[in-house]
Each structure stands twice: as C-alpha cells, then as structure tokens.
Amino acid sequence: MLDEIKKDATQNHVQWNGEDRYSVTGRPSEPRVVDIGKRTCACRRWEITSMPCRHAVDAIWFKATNG
Question: pLDDT by residue (tens digit) across 1-10?
C-alpha cells in the first residue's frame, strides 16, 4: 500500500511554508497543507489511516532532500 502511495506522490509540487508545514499541489491542483510535526494533512487521510498520504510523502521527501 505504501508503495502505491509513493508512486502517486511523484506527481506533486512541494513548497515549504515554514517550520514543519508544506504546501503540496498536485491532482487536482488545489494545494494541501501538510504539517509533518503534527502528522496532519488537509486531505485528512494521514489522520484517518495513520499512514502518510501522498501529500505527506512528498513533503517528507522534500524535507529530506532540502533539509
């Protein structure tokens, strides 16, 4: 399941919003706000399933790559 989420995550654009917050834009083009520290996403999947959504995965990868 996580492999499928990671595959979907490659289609998004990530922008850092300060501290642990990121704006992730993908399909549809409406941005989703992800807070890595609180483990939340505007799509609510992370909170509901306890598994990072594609927006969260992109934000985590962005943070790992850019510090």
Answer: 778 777 777 7
Q: In this structure, are strands 21-25 and 13-18 parallel, antiparallel, or unpaired? A: antiparallel
Report field, pTM of the whole predicted structure over 0.85: no
Buried/exposed 21-49: b ≥16 CB within 10 Å, e otherwise? bbbbbbeeeebbebbbeeebbbbebbeee
The token pair that represents 51 in the structure block = 């598994």
Instruction: Say which residue the tokens 């922008």 belong to.
Output: 15
- Residue-number span of the structural domain to which 59 is assigned: 2-66
Asked which of 26-30, 43-47, 58-62 is least confident by mean pLDDT, the reply is 26-30
Domain count of the fold of the chain: 1
Cα–Cα distance for residue pair 55/19, rounded to 1 Å: 17
